[in-house]
Amino acid sequence: MSKRQHFREIRLLESADDQWEDDLDIYYFMKLSKALQSRYIFRPTSNRMRTPMWKHYLHNLEMVNEGEFLCLFRLQRATFYSLLHIVNEHERDATDYQPLQEVHLLVLLKYLGTCGNDSSAVKLALLFGIGYGTVLNYIRLAMKAILRLKAETVFWPGEEERIHISTRILSDYGFPNCVGIVDGTLFPLEFKPRLNGEDYFTRKGGYAVHSLIICDDQVRIRGITLGWAGSVHDNCVWLRSSYNQTRCEFFRPKEYLLGDSAFKPSCIMIPAFKKPFGQNLDPYKSFFNSKLAMPRILSEHCIGRLKGRFQLLKRLRVLIRTRKDVKRLNRCIMTCAVLHNLLLHDKCSEGWMEESEQDAFDDFLNDEDIEQDTGDRRDSIFSYLCERFR
User: What's the predicted TM-score (pTM) here?
Assistant: First the structure.
């Protein structure tokens, strides 16, 4: 082809007219352009026919040992097979269910456990030895299979289970009738959303989506509220959540949740006391806040473990253009929540855990920022703890 191009340039310089050769040049250049569109044009046949790398990750212990497998896929090899078995056994008899393959789950775990550009389809395809489009198909298939377990994994505890939870919290931390801990968290976005982008700008100087997570004393996620923009306050999300608006479906009389000072006190919410602007907090209220901090740190552990195992949540590479993108992002977060509960007893490296950030902003909110409630339930718990421990 280079010789034909050379002769063509000579004909142009000499102003030679050769219509036959010119037609051949056009034909050959069209063929070359079409060939260059193939991604395998410069790859040897042996490269396309190689054994997929993902099989080595699972079965070749000399190539990938247990520690390296844990680092790559964020769980132990034995736990991987147990998880695959649970997913496939869940709806085995369903007519439209396709069994989840090993490679499907491996690709999803690597995708969720990677932060930044390493989660791109190109890099995952090279890592596993599969096609770029195949990566996206496998992720969708695996997410669909994992989300089938949502109702049996991320669910509000029943009346009997809430009694067990409140008994453990009373024994360990001294709060009677407490059935969980609630906290808000931000999932940062890599790109500014094109759909109402300003609403996603947070006080920390970036774009994010906001979620409210309720956990129990064993850091199991019991409830999660998704789909809110990053600028929305924790208390605003809580007041509009189903757990607050239809509270009779979730709480018996005297049952409540613990939260930080960002929340408004009510009969089902016991938050920490807010420090008055320019003043010191009453010693008894400081004692109450210190007692409250011990169970409340469990929510920080839960969120830290969720983001630590699934690094994708630290920087979501989803550009929000339409409501469908928001739904896709929520599906990704919910998949991580389901896997968090399924892998609760699996080994979690301390290096994955991110340090919890103290939200000093909430401690200096003025009374005008959040409408104050009578807080009768908090006052009764406050009096109970002061009489018991002081």
Answer: 0.83
